[in-house]
Amino acid sequence: MSEDTQKCTIVMFSGDMDKVFAGFIIATTAAAMGMETTMFFTFWGLKAIQKDTPTGKGLFGRMLGIMNRGGIDRIGPSRFNFGGMGRWMFKKMMKDQNVALLPELLQTAIDLDVKFLACLMSMDVMEISRDNLIDEVDDVVGAATFVAEAQGSQIQLFI
Amino acid sequence: MSEDTQKCTIVMFSGDMDKVFAGFIIATTAAAMGMETTMFFTFWGLKAIQKDTPTGKGLFGRMLGIMNRGGIDRIGPSRFNFGGMGRWMFKKMMKDQNVALLPELLQTAIDLDVKFLACLMSMDVMEISRDNLIDEVDDVVGAATFVAEAQGSQIQLFI
Amino acid sequence: MSEDTQKCTIVMFSGDMDKVFAGFIIATTAAAMGMETTMFFTFWGLKAIQKDTPTGKGLFGRMLGIMNRGGIDRIGPSRFNFGGMGRWMFKKMMKDQNVALLPELLQTAIDLDVKFLACLMSMDVMEISRDNLIDEVDDVVGAATFVAEAQGSQIQLFI
């Protein structure tokens, strides 16, 4: 990596489908434009890089794993409402355009070497283990790694 | 524009009144301080630069246009709840301070030459055409234009 | 402060516990890594730097003060839902990890000389006075102060 490589670092905090979508669009676009791009998945954002497998060790952790089940295919409208629009409307929008795209966008990000970092602290809180994440996750790290990445980035966003 | 002009680029993703307000306050302040300021409106944020006209081509698109009708005057509390506060409380706050200000803030942004970019992809999904946007929108663009703007900006925010 | 001190500026807009938590984690980490770190508290984010005292002058302002009562200890799950998870689930997560940490994180931020700025405009709207804020708040300022801070920062985030 040369000295003048431009960098883009995005905190993927939200698990809402629209925001996950926006994050991946920006990340893949930045990567396609030659920027070294890092996505730091934390809290609800972790869902996008989870396998579609049960998580949790204790009773509550397992129930959380069921209610907030991971897997980018599962990110959908059932858990939110999009500003008052009916769920069916959103499903229609997703069917037309978005849902099919999220797994594709994930794969595009992988193909473009976008770096996937997972937040250790929120994984601990939510009882998500490394095994619950897709293999393409580059590392499980603390906030200091994110700050160091962001510090050297031309673009930093919290989504 | 000289080489050392400072730039500020804001993604206007949210359609919630409080966040739209925050975005315009930051944008107009940055522009007033001499920064070249760009607002990139996407998803629910598009509402702020829509005319108060019907949108949508198909049945569902038209219904979305009715439920999520655009126009900065229409951005209000009826579609959300502000952390549990009653709607009436928010209306009172708006009446005292904010609602009157949003159209003014939009006009101030226009007067200060804030650049308005609209996201082509979300316009397609939501069946919003260029004709549905106010005349002052500078361009309808893809994510690459946003990334290029953000890359050269001292301030980038996702709101 | 030397010329090459790195800076981090965060807009604390949200009053949701998870986002407040994320903001303080990033801020304290950046400060611990030697960055000059500023948190600009606005709208619902003000709650984190309020005392646990009543606010408001008029009837509505006082009612807002009761419904949206400040104090970092009071930031909890009762006002939101975390993507459909039951409240009890979130309480369990908080009990295990987070709630105990928020006041600690606030104190850590203070100990690390994180600069706390409060947004004058939103204080006016919400009828919150300087006396309602904790003593450690460094200043009550307008948006221009935030923009100037962010302009000179390597990291700027809107949370």
Placed side by side, the strands forming the largest sheet of chain A appear as 4-3-2-1-5
Q: What's the multimeric state?
A: homotrimer
Which protein chains are joined by the largest interface, and how many residues does each one contribute?
Answer: A-B, 29 and 31 residues
What is the residue-averaged pLDDT of chain A?
82
**Cα shape of chain A:** globular
Structural class of chain A: alpha/beta
- Give the DSSP E fraction of chain A (strand runs of 2 or more residues): 15-25%
Q: Using DSSP, what is the number of strands of chain A?
A: 5
Q: C-alpha Rg of chain A, in Å?
A: 16 Å
Name some characteristics of this structure:
homotrimer; 159 residues; alpha/beta; five-stranded parallel beta sheet; 6 helices; 5 strands; globular
Characterize this entry briefly:
Three copies of one chain form a homotrimer. Chain A is α/β, with parallel strands linked by helices and 159 residues long.
